[in-house]
Specification:
256 residues, 7-stranded mixed beta sheet, alpha/beta, single chain, 27% helix, 14 strands, 28% strand
Length: 256
């Protein structure tokens, strides 16, 4: 009955994370077509028919594009903030639950705490999940780690953390200047160094798993991310790197 989590894929071409406990499974974001989502879920031994709900972090296409089609086909409830719902016309959803004021809620026996983050979206949220003494934080798509964010994500048992770009690669890369400013800005994405700084400030000794995620294919490399995070993540029992094509396989968080 502990928390388990896995990824369908992580990056600018599509995101989706599964969080499960017992007979209940949540999908956080869906940036893939129905067919591709079904294929990626099958690789992890589950089907969209097994889902209890879809949670949405924000309205960018790599997180939202597949949510409404999947929800309509499988008649799934969708949880999202009012700002995210208003930001895009995604059509009729079979069941909508608005996350008001980022207040905690529960889906079956999984407790969910939405956390407001600075990102260039209408009302972005990231999530901390708790179940039977285990906690998991999903923290991507933010440009700054605020004290508010640190207070919620600093004591998780497992953490999926963005290390999106290397600042030098971003500066010298192919993006136009406006996009470089957006990605590297206070409402963009975390750099390798920002992710490392967060871990150094809050400590990582309690982490059973650290999954480094949302790594840019154009503005970062696994080697640069590993190098930047090496010291900060040295005390983590298991450090993994999510990829765009395969995400990562199921990981189980043990109770404290």
């Amino acid at each position: 009955m502990s928390l388990r989590f896995a990824s369908l894929g992580s990056g600018s071409k599509g995101n989706g994370t599964l969080v499960a406990s017992g007979g209940h499974c949540l999908l956080v974001d869906c940036g893939f077509t129905i067919k591709e989502t079904e294929r990626r879920m099958a690789r992890l031994g589950v089907s969209p028919a097994d889902l209890s709900a879809i949670l949405v972090t924000h309205e960018h296409s790599d997180h939202l594009s597949g949510v409404a089609p999947l929800a309509r086909k499988y008649k799934l409830p969708v949880y999202l903030t009012p700002g995210t719902l208003r930001a895009r016309d995604i059509g009729v959803l079979p069941e909508v639950h608005l996350i008001e004021g980022h207040q905690p809620f529960a889906v079956a026996d999984i407790q969910v705490t939405p956390v407001a983050v600075p990102h260039d979206a209408r009302e972005a949220a990231q999530f901390v999940f708790r179940c039977r003494g285990s906690s998991l934080g999903l923290l991507t798509d933010l440009g700054t780690v605020t004290p508010h964010v640190e207070s919620h994500f600093g004591a998780c048992d497992a953490l999926v953390l963005e290390a999106n770009h290397d600042p030098r690669m971003l500066a010298q890369g192919p993006y136009p200047p406006s996009l470089k400013r957006r990605v590297g800005g206070a409402y963009g994405h975390l750099s390798n160094q920002q992710a490392a700084g967060f871990l150094e400030r809050v400590g990582a000794e309690q982490l059973q798993y650290l999954v480094v995620a949302h790594i840019s294919e154009k503005n970062n490399t696994l080697e640069l991310a590993r190098e930047a995070l090496a010291e900060a993540a040295d005390s983590v029992a298991n450090c993994l790197f999510a990829c765009q094509q395969r995400g990562f396989d199921w990981l189980q968080v043990e109770p404290d």
